[in-house]
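Pipeline run #58 for the internal structure catalog. This entry was flagged by the ingest filter as a single-chain record with no existing model, so it goes straight to prediction. Upstream metadata was stripped on purpose; only the residue string is passed forward. Reviewer on rotation: M.T. Logging verbosity set to normal.
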Amino acid sequence: MRVAVVQLSYDDDESPQQRRERVAALVRAQAGHDLVLLPELWPAGGFAYRDWADRAEPVDGPTLEAMSAAARDAGVVLHAGSVVERAADGADRGPQGRGLWNTSLLLGPDGGLLATYRKVHRFGFGSGEPVLLEAGADVVTVDVPRPATGGAPVRLGLTTCYDLRFPELYRRLLDDGARVVLVPAAWPAARVAHWTLLGRARAVEDQVFVVAGNTAGTHAGHRMGGRSQVVGPLGEVLAEAGEGEQVLSVELDVDGLAAVRAGFPVLADRRL
């Protein structure tokens, strides 16, 4: 499975519409890959809390429209990062009545929407996401094709950024059959060492591929950490980015995963 991780850099001077146009071009440039991953909340700004309500959009809003066309043109499965989702008129607004979520969008090579994932764990310690957004409730896996390299569909597990600190979610994804777990993020430079360590830990403990795409640049006063990485099921780092905008292109031997697990059958010893 051929994967591209787009480590996007942006600042406060670029409008959401300008960013959508630029990102669409980056996605189109990844033709020949099976899967492309974008970072968390890039349309609204990962730390631009004050702008989220104004930049919120429905699932079928302008970001989906632009990314759907880009995925179709490139012929790729596209994890389009996440948006601040606004509840449709008359729809459930969540237990706290806010009607906003941090929602990931997964698109097929025909541009159709394959799945959404509302971020379960909200980051902010009493500010930011916990006071502005609803928490997601569903664990999401989805089978996706390999349009470029061929072969059987691959089951992905969907997570977002702060989720990386909660291993029980990844166990659920493992038990639901995930072989590749995606982690779009807006992880700051101040804690980027945690990002690197936790991504590798999740891969090792669950014997899965972890494809973790972070944000670069500085926005809303926060310098982002970069260091996107793709980690194999034995903890081997298959690719790692630096601190700036960069695209990683990696081949994942998903068909060899069963042999890896059989060669070191730690999962068979689970008792809880």
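catalog note: The chain has seven helices and 14 strands.
catalog note: The domain at 2-262 is CATH 3.60.110.10 (Nitrilase/N-carbamoyl-D-aminoacid amidohydrolase).
status: ready for reviewer M.T.
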